[in-house]
Amino acid sequence: MTFGVRSLRRISAALVIALAAMLSFGLTTGVRAEVYADDPSSQDPSRAQIMAMAADLAPIAKTFGCEFAWGQVIGPHSLTLEFVPKGKDVRKWEQLVTFTTFELPPEEEGQRALIERIRSLTINNFSERGTVTNKRLGADRSKMPTAYFEYELGEGAAKEFGVAGIYKARPTLALIVQYQMRKPLAQTDTAKMSALAMPTPKS
Description:
With 203 residues, this protein is α+β, with helices and mostly antiparallel strands. The chain has four helices and eight strands. It has an eight-stranded antiparallel beta sheet with strand order 1-2-3-4-8-7-6-5, with helices on both faces. The protein has one domain (7-197): Protein Transport Mog1p, Chain A, CATH 3.40.1000.
């Protein structure tokens, strides 16, 4: 089973796609079309959807110094988008922000249950394939589940040093946000992710 050449070049991307499959997001077999920011001639019918989501999430990626480079629909309710520093090639990334989006049901109880499931499966998948550290679970101001963790995956030139956040970002949208580098992350970068995923509760 393949889900696009670009995505499977990263261990963490393969794990997140497997997660979407476990959540029964309707993934289909076969290679899916991909949208690159530097290819405006793309005829992918999903291009408008991907570009709209990329524009919505761009301010978050900008805090890590990255801009939209690549996106793919991985199911009827889920997208993956990747952002790299300006002028860099996403196909040869050294610094990368990845968003995996999950459409949420309208009712809060269903939202809470789905985010809890995303949180549990994501952390378990990363723990099984690599090393997860500094894991923190919490809730946002609306009592929706959140998570923060740092991880290392792979070896040698393919090694990923990353930090991830899981949280509800919009009224009907949950995110897995990953910031990845080929070298250990700076404390300033992990602090940015912590601020995104683990907001201070209301007193």
